[in-house]
């Protein structure tokens, strides 16, 4: 039971993102049987992909870790041009991952452990194999023609505007010979954009939300929310922006009305579902607009801190910015350092485990809902992917390497010597869940202690955040709620450093969690010494 009382569950939750291909494999025999009945040719590479049953079998591990909710990246039927973000049927499970019955079992078992489950919903586009698009491209008068965005260009030579697609250089348009018009796709040509100005699309996609909410899911991570509404004139972007993917630029006001409608669908359910949106815009201020007047998204990912290196001044200004902007509205912040689209933060910070540990304290000390990406609790680094093994058109394979569960080759995936779909991350014989769970000083145990400390403290879960004076290489802030107080101190410098803090209301500061483990200066349960070690981070609580 949370200390937070009446706050909506998602405010105090720590989410854990699962990329299902890479998480765990539970039922390879079931998969072979399913694929055989669909007539799909046996493909050895598919054996090295995770499944829903694999996630279910790891729920005890996740409950042990202490997270509150999982977000599962897409598992619906998909030709996998974008590894599931190209959905061919929004209301089923790809036979690669399991069945609807497997999903129901996973959801039930998660709920039985007090874990909530949100799923990815990809509303901006479908697969080009989705029956809606198959019909849409069949003729200019097809029932679903206007469910997608078709335009004349200048013949087949020049597309209707200068928008660029994501991942591979080229226009966000493809000329379709059958009906001699262009269709819009902000991502791959296999991902045609839906036309959200068509009420039939809104209705059909609202039905998708209801389908999963009726099954009991606790909400959605909404893919590319900023893409939904488009200026009907589809105007060119200024020439200097034309080479940048348009998917990260579209910010049309019509999206807000769409979100208000969707919010009503979601809010009609007793489980208090959450809608957390991916708004990949450059500033927190722009992202904040997608919360509306507390009537659009419940939460939106705040991506700008992902642009920071392991750097105190960048992290401090991001902390200040979010604190200032969120104080002005009824909106709750979010924090994330890694996901399936970016190099992992440990890799971005240069590969040091010490830095990854300090970053964990910052992430779980910040004011707002935190999102972990599976494997960061193991301190995973990106895998090195040789050219011949690269599969993602967007070059994002490194952070999608499979999770090592056990130290022996095969790493707990039961592959009988076969390959996983991507190479393993570095040193998987040492950096795996089993080995790290046996070492109380490991980064895995640090995450577990941080999650326990957070769950036990109203200040960490809900408290206001006030930055404290600290040396340039340190970010320090105080969290306070209903008499509960914590201080978070994160050192980014390479040397030991004095950090003088105002004393607590009573007593003295005690180190509740220390990032350093065996190498740290501070010891958990002991008095704060007034200084921190190199790249060390602490959570302090008042004590005798
Ligand atoms: O993360 C980005 C850059 O690092 C963005 O450009 C990101 O690709 C974009 O915001 C959309 O991402 C989402 O939709 C894509 C899918 O490939 C990504 O995996 C998903 O997170 C298309 O569905």
Can you walk through the features of this model?
The protein is an alpha/beta fold and 544 residues long. The chain has 3 domains: 13-125 and 199-449, Glycosidases (TIM Barrel, Alpha-Beta Barrel), CATH 3.20.20.80; 131-184, Oligo-1,6-glucosidase, domain 2; 464-543, Immunoglobulin-like, CATH 2.60.40.1180. The protein has helices spanning 9-12, 20-23, 28-38, 44-47, 52-57, 59-65, 100-112, 131-136, 199-215, 254-267, 284-288, 312-327, 345-348, 353-365, 433-437, 443-455, 458-462; strands spanning 14-18, 69-72, 116-121, 150-151, 173-176, 181-184, 219-222, 274-277, 299-300, 334-336, 369-373, 464-467, 474-481, 484-491, 497-498, 508-514, 531-532, 537-543. The chain has an 8-stranded parallel beta sheet. Strands 12-13-14-18-16 form a 5-stranded antiparallel beta sheet. A 3-stranded antiparallel beta sheet has the order 4-6-5, with no helix packed on it. Helix 9 (199-215) runs parallel beside helix 10 (254-267) and helix 14 runs parallel beside helix 16 (443-455). The chain is globular and about 75 Å long. The two termini are 27 Å apart. It binds 6-O-alpha-D-glucopyranosyl-D-fructose (ISL).
Give the topology:
Elements: H1 9-12, E1 14-18, H2 20-23, H3 28-38, H4 44-47, H5 52-57, H6 59-65, E2 69-72, H7 100-112, E3 116-121, H8 131-136, E4 150-151, E5 173-176, E6 181-184, H9 199-215, E7 219-222, H10 254-267, E8 274-277, H11 284-288, E9 299-300, H12 312-327, E10 334-336, H13 345-348, H14 353-365, E11 369-373, H15 433-437, H16 443-455, H17 458-462, E12 464-467, E13 474-481, E14 484-491, E15 497-498, E16 508-514, E17 531-532, E18 537-543
Parallel strand pairs: 1-2, 1-11, 2-3, 3-7, 7-8, 8-9, 10-11
Antiparallel strand pairs: 4-6, 5-6, 12-13, 13-14, 14-18, 15-17, 16-18
Helix pairs in contact: 9-10, 14-16
This protein binds 6-O-alpha-D-glucopyranosyl-D-fructose.
